């Protein structure tokens, strides 16, 4: 059973990575790249809290939730790629046994506190849960940290090898294969790398304190599945032959076996890794797994007092997040991907998984995980930073890979007519206005069929008394779709002579897209 | 060493080619045109006719040469929009190069939009590969800075290694309108092999472009005028700006070909600053006032 479990775990993490790598141009959505993100058990829960309906978009998660009632937290032990990467980390840094890590048991309530606090925040229309969603978290780490880091290390290693004369051909041959099939993209540069990396590294490093630290004490998805599996029908039975050697108790990944009462596994904590059965000495073989139609019940570790205090904390957090000043200057640069829902709905639905950022990094490269413009809840939502990239005119891929339709899927034609912002000239910087020279790089790149940037030729008196004809660009406001290629390509160093703000942005709702 | 070698032989070679029309003019029975324009045909027949009039591909390509074919595929546009070179023409050129004995034909462009989108949607990648061409993506680490001997504003600039190392270069621009430089033809097309921040050469464009391009003149220039973009260039995007011209202009001298192509847009040399600058510097191999020009109309 353990072998099968490991194979399944490896299969799912590879499947996740495969879908992740597949999210690139050219993209075919026959197998949708966001499929695995819709496995997350939290997504339908919070969608229900927001809309009071069950959305079949999340069918993979709904299936898991249904099966969990019978089987328990198998998702955590068998499917979750974050869980698998924690198991792999264990092998590297050797987590302590439960003899040592039992002292953290009192932290178990935290995951329930996080779940209930984020549920209450969600009722009050504040999305905090998606920062804790394990699949979103894993995808975020892959997009922002793991993939760019791997590109950097692999490319520079191969190119370094190519400098050795006797290796040149071999290295370039390998490089070509690497670029054709594994990582075709150029090096990706994203903001927030440090914080997202730190969080991910912290979660991995916590394995030093106990196995599956994140899953035991923090993961709200685990808490939610635990709540559903209190009565699970598939039970671990400890036979009479058990000599109470406590081997299984000490080695249990989740410390789900109480040391006083070995037979009563905590159904809330157990993730069905089946390690206990394998650890049971061959002579005794006391542990079996069976279906029982009168299952015992495990209560979960969350007292009324803990519930009340986490609720109070949540309400206070919602308040504090809502009463901050809205900085108009900063908000004007919070440019959302084309097809985004109106801002409040967008913030509520977006799970900060960075799937759109990932696929954009293989196209125009404008999307970045946002920092904090006004409130904390903007953190790591996708924002278009046009100075570093631009929205490809013919590309509509961000909407196609959004797992929650916070960015609606648009047809290419619809996307081309959906402005995400508006370009403005800064005539204090723009080359023709300041330096009396032609430039109009922005006009050249403007992609709309009827160009949104046009120019007029005017004569200008130069300081030396002579006259010169110069092309002065300007923006036609109702043609501009805010794609930002003008800002990206502006040859000025530093601040651009043309920049995009959210003015004119068109936010869509489901009704607008058939 | 390779680069120095290239620059040396390249300049000697172009000098040689420069004298060639004079030498060839002794053979009155087989006069080779300086520049040829072919009208009213499909891309591959336009090419074949033009190259025959220039004396055949073997005049330009030797056995075992490594050839770079430089189309314009800078934009994420379908071929119908005439923002990129016609893919059938590129494929036909690649095939002809191999027939003339080329060892390898490389095709690349430093694009304005995302390179993979451009390569794919221009259909050049697909068509060139079907002709066994080696379509390569630009690698950031493969640019070398060269000295610009005759540079006025610019003294050095980065050029793509594969371009510098090639034995022969065939420049295949599409003829199109360009807002800054008036037209985009062979000279402008070579911006697709230069590195660094290209936006920086847009102010003082004619001089800076001539500074760079004069160092990297191609062996042969074939201007694709099958479809031409008459307005809103270089990126276009509207079919109403595209004119089905069904022509092709070719010459061993890029400047001569470009000047000839101005007629497509009813322009004079005086109206196009960057070409005027090229002629002012004497970068045209042939006397523009006394050209041996051939115009062939296919039926």
Protein described:
With 514 residues, chain A is mainly alpha-helical. Chain A has 3 domains: 2-137 and 200-291, no CATH class; 328-418 and 507-512, 2-Layer Sandwich (Alpha-Beta Plaits), CATH 3.30.70; 422-501, Alpha-Beta Plaits (2-Layer Sandwich), CATH 3.30.70. Chain A is 44% helix and 8% strand. In chain A, the strands form 4 sheets. A two-stranded antiparallel ribbon of chain A has the order 1-2. In chain A, helix 1 (2-22) crosses helix 5. The two termini of chain A are 47 Å apart. Chain B has 299 residues and is an alpha/beta fold. Chain B has one domain (2-6, 34-297): Rossmann fold. Chain B is built from 10 helices and 12 strands. Chain B has helices at 2-24, 43-53, 87-99, 115-121, 124-130, 161-165, 186-189, 205-213, 254-261, 273-280; strands at residues 35-39, 66-71, 104-107, 134-135, 143-147, 156-160, 168-172, 174-178, 182-184, 220-229, 242-251, 293-297. In chain B, strands 1, 2, 3, 4, 7, 8, 9, 10, 11 and 12 form a 10-stranded mixed sheet that branches. A two-stranded antiparallel sheet of chain B has the order 5-6. In chain B, helix 3 (87-99) links the parallel strand 2 and strand 3. The longest helix of chain B has 23 residues, at 2-24. The radius of gyration of chain B is 17 Å and the shape is globular. Chains A and B meet through helix 22 of A and helix 4 of B.
Note the main attributes of this structure.
heterodimer; A: 514 residues; mainly alpha; Alpha-Beta Plaits; 23 helices; 44% helix; B: 299 residues; alpha/beta; globular
Unreliable segments of chain B (pLDDT under 50, ≥5 consecutive)? 21-29
**Can you count the helices of chain B?**
10
Average of per-residue pLDDT values of chain A: 93
CATH class of chain B: Alpha Beta
Estimated radius of gyration of chain B: 17 Å
Pair with the most extensive interface? A-B, 35 and 28 residues
Largest sheet of chain B: 10 strands, mixed
**Count the helices of chain A. How many?**
23
CATH topology of chain B: Rossmann fold
Main sheet makeup of chain A:
2 strands, antiparallel
For CATH, the homologous superfamily of chain B is named as LarA, N-terminal domain
Looking across the biggest beta sheet of chain A, what order are the strands in? Answer: 1-2
What is the count of β-strands of chain A? 8
Task: Output mean pLDDT of chain B.
Answer: 90
What is the H-and-E element order of chain B? Answer: HEHEHEHHEEEHEEEHHEEHHE
């Amino acid at each position: 059973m353990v072998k099968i479990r490991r194979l399944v775990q490896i299969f799912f993490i590879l499947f996740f990575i495969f879908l992740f790598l597949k999210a690139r141009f050219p993209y075919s959505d026959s197998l949708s790249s966001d499929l695995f993100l819709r496995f997350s058990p939290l997504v339908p829960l919070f969608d229900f809290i927001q809309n009071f309906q069950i959305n079949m978009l999340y069918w993979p998660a709904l299936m898991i939730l249904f099966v969990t009632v019978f089987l328990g937290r198998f998702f955590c032990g068998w499917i979750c790629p974050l869980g698998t990467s924690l198991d792999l980390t264990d092998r590297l840094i050797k987590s302590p046994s439960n003899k040592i890590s039992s002292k953290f048991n009192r932290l178990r309530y935290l995951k329930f506190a996080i779940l209930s606090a984020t549920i209450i925040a969600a009722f009050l229309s504040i999305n905090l849960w998606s920062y804790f969603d394990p699949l979103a978290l894993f995808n975020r780490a892959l997009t922002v940290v793991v993939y760019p880091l791997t590109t950097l290390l692999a490319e520079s290693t191969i190119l370094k090898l190519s400098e050795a004369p006797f290796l040149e051909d071999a290295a370039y041959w390998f490089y070509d294969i690497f670029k054709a099939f594994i990582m075709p993209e150029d090096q990706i540069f994203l903001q927030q790398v440090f914080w997202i990396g730190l969080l991910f590294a912290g979660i991995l490093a916590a394995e030093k304190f106990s196995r599956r630290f994140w899953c035991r004490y923090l993961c709200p998805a685990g808490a939610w599945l635990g709540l559903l599996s209190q009565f699970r029908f598939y039970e671990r039975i400890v036979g009479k032959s058990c000599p109470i050697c406590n081997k299984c108790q000490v080695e249990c990944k989740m410390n789900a076996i109480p040391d006083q009462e070995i037979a009563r596994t905590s159904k809330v904590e157990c993730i069905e890794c089946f390690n206990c059965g394998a650890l049971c000495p061959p002579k005794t073989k006391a542990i079996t797994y069976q279906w029982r139609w009168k299952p015992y019940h495990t209560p979960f570790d969350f007292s009324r007092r803990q519930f009340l205090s986490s609720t109070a904390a949540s309400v206070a957090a919602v308040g504090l997040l809502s009463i901050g000043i809205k900085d108009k200057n900063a908000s004007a640069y919070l440019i959302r991907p084309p097809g985004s829902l109106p801002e409040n709905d967008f913030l509520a639905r977006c799970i900060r998984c960075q799937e759109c950022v990932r696929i954009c990094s293989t196209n125009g490269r404008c999307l970045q995980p946002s920092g904090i413009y006004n409130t904390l809840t903007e953190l790591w939502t996708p924002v278009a930073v046009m100075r570093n990239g631009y929205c490809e005119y013919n590309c509509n891929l961000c909407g196609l890979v959004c797992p929650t339709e916070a960015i609606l899927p648009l047809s290419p034609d619809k996307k081309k007519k959906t402005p995400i912002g508006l370009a403005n000239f800064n005539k204090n910087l723009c080359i023709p206005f300041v330096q009396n020279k032609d430039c109009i790089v922005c006009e050249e790149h403007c992609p709309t069929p009827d160009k949104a940037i046009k120019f007029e030729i005017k004569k200008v008196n130069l300081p030396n008394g002579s006259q010169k004809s110069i092309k002065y660009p300007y923006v036609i406001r109702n043609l501009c779709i805010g794609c930002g290629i003008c800002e990206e390509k502006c040859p000025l160093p530093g601040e651009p002579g043309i920049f995009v703000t959210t003015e004119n942005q068109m936010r869509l709702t489901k009704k607008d897209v058939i | 060493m390779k680069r120095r070698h290239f620059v040396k032989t390249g300049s000697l070679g172009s000098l040689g080619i420069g004298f060639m029309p004079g030498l060839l003019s002794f053979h009155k029975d087989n006069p080779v045109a300086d520049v040829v324009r072919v009208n009213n045909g499909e891309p591959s027949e336009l090419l074949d006719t033009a190259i025959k009039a220039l004396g055949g591909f073997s005049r330009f390509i030797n056995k075992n040469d490594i050839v770079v074919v430089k189309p314009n595929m800078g934009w994420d546009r379908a071929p119908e929009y005439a923002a990129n070179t016609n893919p059938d023409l590129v494929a036909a050129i690649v095939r002809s190069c191999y027939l003339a004995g080329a060892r390898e034909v490389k095709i690349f462009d430093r694009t304005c939009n995302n390179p993979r989108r451009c390569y794919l949607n221009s259909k050049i990648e697909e068509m060139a590969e079907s002709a066994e061409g080696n379509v390569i993506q630009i690698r950031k680490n493969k640019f070398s800075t060269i000295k610009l001997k005759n540079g006025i504003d610019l003294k050095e600039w980065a050029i793509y290694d594969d371009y510098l190392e090639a034995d022969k270069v065939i420049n295949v621009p599409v003829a199109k309108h360009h807002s800054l430089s008036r037209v985009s033809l062979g000279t402008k097309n070579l911006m697709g092999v230069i590195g660094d921040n290209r936006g920086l050469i847009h102010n003082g464009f004619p001089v800076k472009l001539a500074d760079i391009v004069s160092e990297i003149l191609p062996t042969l220039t074939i201007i694709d005028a099958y479809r031409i973009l008459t307005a809103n260039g270089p990126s276009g995007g509207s079919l109403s700006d595209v004119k089905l011209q069904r022509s092709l202009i070719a010459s061993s001298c890029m400047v001569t070909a470009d000047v000839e192509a101005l007629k497509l847009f009813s322009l004079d040399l005086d109206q196009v600053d960057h070409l005027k600058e090229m002629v002012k510097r004497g970068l045209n191999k042939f006397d523009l006032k006394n050209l041996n020009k051939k115009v062939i109309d296919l039926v």
